[in-house]
Amino acid sequence: MLREMSSQQVDEWIAFYRLEPWGLAVLDNLFAHFKALFVRANMPKGKTPPKPEKLLLWPEQIKRTDAVLEPQDDEEEWQQQA
Known about the structure:
Distance between the termini: 43 Å
Structural class: mainly alpha
Mean pLDDT: 78
Low-confidence stretches: none
Strand content: under 5%
Number of strands: 0
Radius of gyration: 19 Å
Helix content: 55-70%
Oligomer: single chain
Largest sheet: none
């Protein structure tokens, strides 16, 4: 694949993954939220519902693949002005 893509295209895909990650870890996170919704809807009143993080199939995967965007210098200045 690297023979068919330029380094700029690879960098663009890496940047896109940081904005919109994909894969099993993302689906696991999505389904954990669905499971938490169903549990919350069907549990008796007064009980504390589990957090979605407790319903993950692969909790260690989310920590490794979670896309955390680091603010750029100009973004920090913009947020301070707002």
